[in-house]
Please model this.
Amino acid sequence: SAVISQKPSRDICQRGTSLTIQCQVDSQVTMMFWYRQQPGQSLTLIATANQGSEATYESGFVIDKFPISRPNLTFSTLTVSNMSPEDSSIYLCSVEDQLGSNEQFFGPGTRLTVL
Amino acid sequence: SQQGEEDPQALSIQEGENATMNCSYKTSINNLQWYRQNSGRGLVHLILIRSNEREKHSGRLRVTLDTSKKSSSLLITASRAADTASYFCATVISGGSYIPTFGRGTSLIVHP
Model:
């Protein structure tokens, strides 16, 4: 099973600023996933990050707002740009357990509050 | 709307009692998964049941799947205070994306 860490674990940010969240996996993985969980809500997939290519964004999410980097097979970053209070959420990265298993391992999450 | 919807939204029980949570979904699935989330942290995968399976067990967990009713249930037997968490079902749709789609979750509180 993969061990995933995220930085920061939480942050309080001002409106209009940007925050970059880091996700580190202890093994090489093909795909990494970024989710948003708004207060009291379910998880919503933001994008899938592949190494060496552009991230694939889900409907309602755009690269200008949530730029993603995937420089190697163990690391990814998600930036939340030009933040507003509506961006206050928990942001989670995940990886698939074994290719084709559909089971996901999640990082501990980044709790973001935008004032 | 969500593919999976959990019921109830919140459940409060005493330690030692059983907890049952239900999940209903709309379209045909390849598999259905249950996850646990403690205090707004990362999710932990509990169990996966495939569309051709009807029941699976893992320790104190029992999951059933009824594809004719498009529903699943998660039973936690002899609950403990440490079981207090939110529980999410997630579905992988047949012929669609392999990435699970999550429901809104059931918040379980187990009182010692």
Notes: The interface with chain B takes residues 4, 33, 37, 41-45, 48, 90, 92, 94, 97, 100-109, 111 of chain A (CB under 8 Å). Chain A has a mean pLDDT of 93. Chain A is about 0% helix and 50% strand.
